[in-house]
Specification:
single chain; alpha/beta; Glutaredoxin; five-stranded mixed β-sheet; two-stranded antiparallel ribbon; 12 helices; 7 strands; 9% strand; transmembrane helix; OligosaccharylTrfase_OST3/OST6; Magnesium transporter protein 1; endoplasmic reticulum; signal
């Protein structure tokens, strides 16, 4: 009932006597964000008549038929700025303030078509500031427009309002508890899922051979130039006009092909398996003769595979002095 009387008093003041600061302050403080909605019936006294306040105006729409995505994105920012100002100055600016009070207005296309037609807008949203004036003037030439650009629109718009009005006030952004609740539920769900998975497959995940294998694979990938080929986006092979393909760039130690990563990884992987076999596998053979044969065979294989690795080094660096068997 009280809000209805205030709103009725505001409309009467709008139509017959123009908008004064006390009436506007009551309407702005009556609830919500403090943004005063303009319509076809009340926008003229705000914009065309004399003002003893600074008017910040947003031209927008919430109509689903227009479907203005940027309007829906910017309106919450505008509401937060308005509510921040009203919460800091609910009774108006201090008496010794040198700047006039600030009021925030919004005109929706559905309810304020005459204003949209007068401004001849081709796109929305638009933000304007109109300074205080003693008498009616050509307000369309006097108003300042906010340029929508940049990434942090809420803070940019807030700074623009402060600059246009000359009034500094803090921005009070309400906490988004829905995001906090979502994060808590998500973390709880993931924790429960991991707990159940661990109870069922914990022995597998705790197995040393899995982590040893993953560690070896990671070491092979990062020591053979895998990240280099991904970052530089190098070709897998180099193909000549004759149809011949190079899998290793000979004489170019600062550049490599994608195939080189796999070749060197394969060689390192074979060497790793052979060394592990020599240290862990062969000693388990209890027969002395078989054990000796196993040591000899694995050692020869290590010698051959290591010769392949030295051959690759020799191809990449033509002055590389070490080699065993020339296998590549």
């Amino acid at each position: 009932m009280q809000f209805g009387l205030l709103l009725w008093g505001w409309l009467v003041a709008t139509v017959f006597a123009g908008l004064d600061v006390d009436t506007l302050r009551k309407v702005a403080n009556s609830g919500g964000s403090g943004v005063i909605e303009l319509t076809d019936e009340n926008w003229e006294p705000v914009l065309e008549g004399p003002r003893d306040y600074t008017a910040i105006l947003m031209m927008t729409t919430r109509s689903t038929q227009v479907n203005c995505v940027l309007c829906n994105e910017m309106r919450p920012y505008y509401d937060v700025i308005s509510s921040s100002y009203r919460s800091e100055f609910p009774s108006g600016l201090p008496e010794d303030a040198s700047q006039p009070e600030v009021f925030f207005f919004a005109a929706d296309f559905v309810n304020c078509k005459t204003l949209f037609q007068k401004l001849q807008l081709s796109s929305i949203p638009k933000f304007y500031s109109l300074s205080a004036q003693d008498k009616a003037s050509n307000w369309m030439k006097d108003m300042e427009e906010y340029a929508i650009m940049g990434e942090d629109q809420q803070h940019d718009l807030h700074k623009w309002v402060e600059k246009q009005s000359g009034v500094d006030f803090s921005l009070h952004i309400p906490k988004d508890y829905s995001q906090v609740i979502t994060n808590v539920v998500l973390v709880a769900a993931v924790t429960i899922a991991l707990y159940k998975i661990y109870n069922r497959y914990g022995a597998v995940w705790a197995a040393s051979w899995i982590w040893s294998g993953l560690s070896i694979i990671a070491v092979l990938m990062f020591t053979t130039g895998y990240m280099f080929t991904k970052i530089r986006n190098v070709p897998y092979v180099r193909e000549h006009s004759s149809g011949h393909k190079d899998y290793i760039l000979s004489g170019q130690s600062q550049m490599q092909l994608g195939a080189e990563t796999q070749i060197v990884s394969l060689i390192y992987g074979l060497l790793t398996l052979l060394v592990v076999l020599l240290i862990k596998g062969v000693p388990t053979v209890t027969n002395p003769a078989a054990n000796l044969i196993g040591v000899a065979v694995v050692s020869v294989l290590i010698f051959v595979v290591y010769s392949m690795l030295l051959s690759v080094f020799g191809m990449k660096g033509l002055g590389y002095p070490y080699k065993f068997l020339q296998l590549i």
